[in-house]
């Protein structure tokens, strides 16, 4: 870190996580600066989702450090953890909308944490958030099952941004979408991250998405970050893992089923 | 000798696995109870679950009780004619229904309906990351999903069993008065005379315990599920099997140890 560089919003140091003897994360180091959009790329099974879940506190790393504005997140519980999570917004791969609730309750869930609240005001707020992702008020009263995949992703994005988080996480935001809808979601992500002035961390293996939403890119392979740099440098990284991934080659250092 | 050894090993492994599962379920229940006593509480979730467990189970529980009560009265009458004890039909029917069949059959029927639904819903939420989403949205899944279900089933089963007991007795009355030659009023007076407070207390205690068990089996298996659609199916089956076995085991324990004197 140089003297002029701001302190990282998220700082990961030597994060390790194993499952039944398989070392999925083997010392991940990564800094994400405030306002930066970082995208982690890597093949299937390389631990991208595990890393994201470790940051969100859904999984507990075996060792290492995850700091949010200098505050250690590992071991945090109760009000401290709640305060950290209040700063997070998360778009899950499949949307993860609550089936039993109408769209407007889903969108405003972060404001109520599942409790009641003033229904009319919350519904109006939800409609305003839905408008930001290009959905009309007619969607508000529908159940998630009545929506297409692309609409569900938009609603999930509206839910992620509703509480004005300053760190947004995106897990494979364009998976399962057609190229046009993927482009729409990428544009919305870029717009909403900019509108909130948020820091963003995304994981994906969709190169179109990477080039659209990333400021910087990190390559996760063999449980570690093997390359990190600006998105403009992706095609001339000089890293064999990155070159193989970007070019979509079967031959190269990356094994198709991840680290042994 | 080898075959016997293998059999003993298999029995030992099964026993250890069963006790392990029981222990994990008990820890899960303890965690749910500890968290349930601290706010935030979700009364809307509780009311929703009470309607789901109680109100919507009424038809199946009512029909089961009606048919069982009627069949029981007929069987007691047939058995009673062998030693000139036909007049015991009202007394034996009410005692059997209230002390045993009402709570057990209601517990099993509701378990078939509710444990499976709870397991399937929570398991689906697990595999579609909805439970992870709850956590990231600062909502404790134990308080939001598990506690309302446990409490709702524990509260609603006794009410359902009261209804089942009444309908079961009426089923017996119906058969006795239409086919077996009993006087309707005499039947009901005899029923009331032989029904003791201890019978009702036993029935309600069993119902509350069975309600807790069936919700616990559903929630536990759903919450711990993994492996996509196959995992949801497995969780549903495991929930119903566990609920049935634990309800019958708990019934034996309560009948013999608590109300056996």
Mean pLDDT of chain B: 95
- The best one-word shape of chain A is globular
The helix fraction of chain A, in percent, is: 25-40%
The structure class of chain A reads: alpha/beta
Rg of chain A, Å, rounded = 18 Å
- List SSEs of chain B in N-to-C order: HHHHHHHHH
Number of E-state strands of chain B: 0
Q: CATH superfamily of the largest domain in chain A, called what?
A: P-loop containing nucleotide triphosphate hydrolases
The shape of chain B, in one word, is: globular
Specify Rg of chain B, calculated over alpha carbons: 21 Å
Most extensive chain-chain interface: A-B, 23 and 19 residues
SS content category of chain B: mainly alpha
Bin the strand percentage of chain A.
Answer: 15-25%
CATH architecture of the largest domain in chain A: 3-Layer(aba) Sandwich
Q: Give the biggest beta sheet of chain A.
A: 6 strands, mixed
Q: How many domain units of chain A? A: 2
Count of all domains of chain B: 1
End-to-end Cα distance of chain B: 44 Å
Order of helices and strands of chain A: EEEHEEHEHHHHEHEHEEH
Mean pLDDT level of chain A: 91
Strand line-up of the largest beta sheet of chain A = 6-7-8-3-9-10
What brief labels describe this structure?
heterodimer, A: 260 residues, alpha/beta, Rossmann fold, 2 domains, six-stranded mixed β-sheet, four-stranded antiparallel β-sheet, 33% helix, B: 261 residues, mainly alpha
């Amino acid at each position: 870190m140089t003297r002029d560089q701001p302190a990282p919003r998220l700082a990961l140091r030597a994060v390790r996580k194993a499952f039944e003897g398989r070392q999925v994360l083997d010392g991940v180091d990564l800094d994400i600066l405030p306002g930066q959009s970082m995208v982690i790329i890597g093949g299937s099974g390389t631990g991208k989702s595990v890393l994201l879940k470790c940051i969100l506190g859904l999984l507990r790393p075996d060792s290492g450090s995850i700091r949010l504005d200098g505050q250690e997140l590992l071991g945090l519980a109760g009000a401290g953890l709640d305060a950290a999570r209040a700063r997070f917004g998360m778009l899950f791969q499949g949307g993860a909308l609550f089936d039993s609730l109408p769209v407007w309750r889903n969108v405003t869930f972060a404001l109520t944490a599942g409790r009641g609240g003033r229904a009319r005001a919350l519904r109006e707020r939800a409609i305003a958030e839905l408008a930001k992702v290009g959905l009309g008020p007619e969607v508000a009263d529908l159940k998630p099952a009545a929506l297409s995949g692309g609409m569900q992703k938009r609603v999930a994005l509206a839910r992620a941004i509703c509480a004005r988080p300053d760190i947004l996480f995106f897990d494979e935001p364009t998976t399962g979408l057609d190229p046009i809808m993927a482009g729409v979601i990428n544009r919305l992500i870029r717009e909403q991250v900019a509108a909130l002035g948020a820091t963003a961390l995304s994981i994906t293996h969709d190169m179109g998405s990477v080039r659209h939403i990333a400021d910087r890119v990190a390559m996760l392979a063999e449980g570690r970050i093997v390359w990190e740099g600006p998105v403009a440098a992706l095609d001339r990284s000089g890293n064999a893992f990155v070159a193989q991934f970007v070019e979509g080659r079967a031959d190269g250092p990356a094994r198709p089923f991840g680290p042994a | 000798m080898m075959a016997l050894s293998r059999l003993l090993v298999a029995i030992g492994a099964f026993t250890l696995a069963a006790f392990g599962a029981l222990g994990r379920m008990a820890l899960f229940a303890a965690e749910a109870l500890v968290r349930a006593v601290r706010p935030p509480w979700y009364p809307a979730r509780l009311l929703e679950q009470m309607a789901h467990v109680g109100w919507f189970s009424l038809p199946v529980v009512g029909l089961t009780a009606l048919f069982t009560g009627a069949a029981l009265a007929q069987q007691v009458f047939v058995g009673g004619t062998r030693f000139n004890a036909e007049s015991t039909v009202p007394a034996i029917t009410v005692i059997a229904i209230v002390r045993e069949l009402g709570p057990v059959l209601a517990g099993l029927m509701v378990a078939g309906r509710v444990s499976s639904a709870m397991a399937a819903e929570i398991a689906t939420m697990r595999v579609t990351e909805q439970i992870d989403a709850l956590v990231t949205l600062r909502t404790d899944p134990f308080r939001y999903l598990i506690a309302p279900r446990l409490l709702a089933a524990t509260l609603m089963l006794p009410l359902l069993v009261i209804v089942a007991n009444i309908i079961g007795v009426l089923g017996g009355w119906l058969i006795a008065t239409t086919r077996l030659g009993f006087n309707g009023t005499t039947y009901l007076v005899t029923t009331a005379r032989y029904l003791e407070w201890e019978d009702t207390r036993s029935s309600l205690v069993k119902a509350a315990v069975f309600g807790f068990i069936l919700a616990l089996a559903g929630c536990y298996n759903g919450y711990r599920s993994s492996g996509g659609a196959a995992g949801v199916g497995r969780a549903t089956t495991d929930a119903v099997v566990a609920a049935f076995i634990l309800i019958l085991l708990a019934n034996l324990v309560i009948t013999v140890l608590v109300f056996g004197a």
